[in-house]
Design brief:
Helix content: 25-40%
CATH class: Alpha Beta
Distance between the termini: 22 Å
Structural class: alpha/beta
Shape: flat
Strand content: 5-15%
Radius of gyration: 17 Å
CATH architecture: 3-Layer(aba) Sandwich
Largest sheet: 3 strands, parallel
CATH topology: Rossmann fold
Length: about 170
């Protein structure tokens, strides 16, 4: 299970490279860290290379999109997905046999939209990225629901009734 996104932004080209940034693009683009001089590749390349390496060892790999920030921040719902959601989908659906995709972002978005403004905002007590324990449970339930509805190797492990959140 590979899920990335929130902390991968920034620019590796600057002298203030945070050491977590990826090179912009979706393929073979390469950047150079302005801080260390190291080569930095795209998000897609890192995830695709990891997935292929795991599949070569016999694993089944699930690439999941990131979970959303508070989509009701400011009082108006927005389901605009950050670039990493598209990147995860491209890798999950395009890497080849043994690699699967789960749209955790869409599942959680549907749950937040259903909850509404006030209830969703309560799940983000400190900032727009990190949920409360109740928010974490909702996000986990959204994942279980989308897995149960999907076609990944995890589907058979979601047993019994699950809490439907969207």
């Amino acid at each position: 299970m590979i899920e990335f996104g929130h902390n991968d932004g920034g620019s590796p080209n600057s002298a203030t490279d945070n050491g977590r940034s990826d090179c912009p693009g979706t393929g073979a683009e390469v950047c150079t860290s302005g801080k260390t001089g190291e080569k930095v590749y795209t998000f897609n390349k890192y995830i695709s290379d990891a997935a292929k390496a795991y599949v070569a060892k016999g694993a089944k790999v699930i690439v999941s999109s990131q979970t959303p920030n508070n989509q009701w921040e400011g009082g108006v719902y927005s389901d605009a997905a950050p670039r990493f959601v598209g990147y995860a989908k491209t890798v999950g659906e395009g890497t080849g046999s043994g690699v699967y995709y789960v749209d955790h972002f869409a599942a959680t978005s549907k749950a937040f939209k259903k909850l509404g403004n006030a209830a969703t905002n309560k799940l983000y007590p400190k900032d727009h990225t990190h949920t409360s324990p109740d928010g974490a449970k909702l996000v986990a339930n959204a994942f279980a629901q989308v897995v149960k509805e999907g076609n990944t190797p995890l589907k058979g492990f979601v047993r019994g009734d699950i809490k439907l959140v969207y």
